[in-house]
Design brief:
Helix content is about 40%, strand content about 20%. It is α/β, with parallel strands linked by helices and about 220 residues long. It has an eight-stranded parallel β-sheet with strand order 7-6-5-4-3-2-1-8. The protein is globular and about 50 Å long. Bound molecules: pyridoxal-5'-phosphate (PLP).
């Protein structure tokens, strides 16, 4: 048995002003409910379909909990995504941003999103080149149904976690630059179980933690 409550409390103590996204992929509803009972306010899911299976039952018990999509989104799932998620962390192309805007328009919602940045291309496939971030932010101003609220970054899985620090610093610098001209920019989503303390030290204000709360994921189930 993982000590979910103790894990959450220990993480909360380190967060300061940052907010915790409890990453619940592969976790069944009963386990997620334990985390919500322990005070978790944001649930992060990777896949639309998996989130859908848990959404209504959890929503009924915890209507105020926020739902964040943190995994890659395919445009054909945009309609379902905008129905469920308060914040989509994973906008990684102009095409997807426009698709989310179209989907949000259909339900008359303004969808909050983050732009996912890829600083180290050999490690992860998704995310925008750093050079494409500002142009895409500018283009987003033409869209009435999406609001870009910040940046998301997934650090590579380095053997020495300290190698993440310069990348987190680069993200923070970009975040501050964008914030200067745009008061909607407020979230810097970076940091996972292995690297969140380093991310917090470099200005992350949303951390996404799964293993550190629930223990090792069992993908086989
Ligand atoms: C799974 C996942 C996390 C959480 O990872 P842990 O190492 O279990 O904390 C965070 N962000 C994204 C995008 C993920 O897919």
């Amino acid at each position: 048995m993982e000590k979910i409550v103790e894990n959450i409390q220990a993480i909360q103590k380190k967060l300061g002003q940052a907010q915790l996204v409890a990453v619940t992929k592969t976790q069944p509803v009963e386990i997620i409910l334990q985390a919500l009972d322990a005070g978790v306010q944001i649930v992060g899911e990777n896949r639309v379909q998996e989130a859908e299976q848990k959404f209504s039952i959890i929503k009924e018990k915890f209507p105020k909990v926020a739902w964040h999509l943190i995994g890659h989104l395919q445009t054909n799932k945009a309609q379902k995504a905008v129905k469920m998620f308060d914040l989509i962390h994973s906008i990684d192309s102009e095409h997807l941003l426009f698709a989310v805007s179209d989907a949000a328009k259909k339900i008359n919602k303004i969808q909050d999103v983050l732009l996912q940045v890829n600083l180290v291309h050999e490690e992860t496939k998704f995310g925008l080149d750093i050079a494409d971030v500002k142009p895409l932010l500018k283009r987003s101003y033409e869209l009435d149904f999406v609001r870009v609220c910040g940046l998301m970054f997934i650090a590579p899985n380095y053997e020495d976690v300290n190698q993440c620090t310069p990348l987190f610093q680069k993200m923070h610098q970009l975040f501050l630059e964008l914030q200067k001209d745009d008061e909607q920019i407020k979230f810097l989503s970076m940091g996972m179980t292995n690297d969140y303390e380093l991310a917090l030290a470099e200005g992350a204000n949303l951390v996404r933690i799964g293993t550190g709360i629930f223990g090792k994921r069992n993908y086989a189930k």
